[in-house]
Amino acid sequence: MAVAGIDLDVAEGEIYAFLGPNGAGKTTTVRMLTTLLRPTGGSATVAGHDVAHEASAVRRAIGVALQEAALDPLMTGIELMRLQAALHAVPRAEVRRRTEALIERVDLTYAAERRVGTYSGGMRRRLDLAMALIHHPRVLFLDEPTTGLDPVSRQAIWREVQALNDEGTTVFLTTQYLEEADQLADRVGIIDNGGMAAEGTPSQLKAEIGQPRLEISVAGELPTAEEVLGRYGRVVAGPNGTIAVPLEHGPKQVAEIVRALDEAGLLVESLDVQEPTLDDVFIAKTGHALKGDEAEAAAG
User: Fold this and answer.
1) Does 1.20.1250.20 match the CATH number of domain 211-275?
2) Fold agreement between 15-206 and 211-275
3) What percent of the chain has a predicted confidence (pLDDT) above 70?
4) Which whole-number Å values give the CA distances from 107 to 63, 129, 141, 155, 161, in the listed order?
5) Does the structure show a pLDDT above 80 at 1?
6) CA 18 to CA 150: how far, in whole Å?
7) 64-179-208 Cα angle (round to 5)
8) HSE value, Cβ hemisphere, 13 Å, CA-based, for 40
9) Cα–Cα distance between 205 and 84 in angstroms, integer?
10) Do 159 and 128 contact (CB within 8 A), yes or no?
11) Which of the four pLDDT bands, split at 50, 70 and 90, describes residue 48?
12) How far apart, in Å, do the first and last CA atoms of the chain sit?
């Protein structure tokens, strides 16, 4: 996917999440910023270096863990770590210490001498992360690091990304998972069809798109419930068979809505006030939903 008109400014020491569906231009952008793809126009600097004219300096300053990790299945984890150290000219006296520390950090000490071909997907991602850190990069690029992973492995990657950032590493994270961005990111950029659709902190973006909503389940005629709720805003289907309506004036409207349903002879079985989510933001800004499970299906 070609990208056009993207303007990004990521501050030192922050986690920046770059959101978008498959084919939106996320990976193309990362490849340009990491000098793997030469831009055909515009300009970009990473860690103070121009990606087109100072590519070597950029590479020395960054760590990169791409979605498709190119790991030799016949080599062991420790061998790949040492190879990566050599490629980055890590001083020989430092190689062993850094390798062992990073292998331990990503919880792979028990598998360090095993061939990578025997690793699970989550183990490969953790090894790739460790390899990206061998030269102490200032900026870490993670291209969909948890796509296709099980929830436990995904949480492990999240914890490590947060810990690295707490130590001062700037993180540029592409993802299809809105929960991932909400959990980790200081700021979020949304890309769609090759261009920027929105940018800001998660809380700013949620506030932009408006009100909380009431998700409600009733005993009685559903069309009657929809008619009553329709007086307060556009009714949509909620999760688990509920129906939802925006609370234009905030949670204080809940009592009024419940009284209106009661007067219509409808019994409220359950209700829940939901604040806006990044899912709501993405839909509002792009006109369609972002489904992280697309990646799960592709991995399968």
Assistant:
1) no
2) no
3) 96
4) 19, 11, 21, 13, 14
5) no
6) 21
7) 110
8) 5
9) 39
10) no
11) very high
12) 23
* Cα angle 9, 174, 53; round to 5: 50
Global pTM?
A: 0.80
Residue whose entry in the numeric block shows the structure tokens 């291209």: 143
Q: Which pLDDT score is estimated for 298? A: 39
117, amino acid identity = G
Q: Candidates 2.40.50.100, 1.20.1070.10, 3.40.50.300, 3.40.50.1980; correct CATH number of 15-206? A: 3.40.50.300
For CA atoms 294, 296, 297, 298, give the dihedral sign: positive
How do the domains of the chain map onto residue ranges? 15-206, 211-275
Reported as a single tens digit per residue, the pLDDT across 29-45 is 999 999 999 988 889 99
Residue 147, C-beta contacts closer than 8 angstroms, at least 6 positions apart? 67, 175, 176, 177, 292, 295, 296, 298, 299
Read off the amino acid at residue 90.
Answer: V
Within 114-200, strands assigned E span 139-143, 170-175, 187-192, 195-200
pLDDT at 293: 46
CB neighbourhood size of 231 (10 A): 11
Question: Which contacts (CB < 8 Å, 24+ apart) does range 84-90 have?
Answer: 84/131, 84/134, 85/134, 85/135, 88/60, 88/134, 88/135, 89/135, 90/134, 90/135
Long-range contacts of 219-228 (CB under 8 A, 24+ apart): 219/266, 219/267, 219/269, 220/264, 220/265, 220/266, 220/267, 221/266, 224/264, 224/265, 224/266, 225/261, 225/264, 225/266, 227/264, 228/257, 228/260, 228/261, 228/264, 228/266
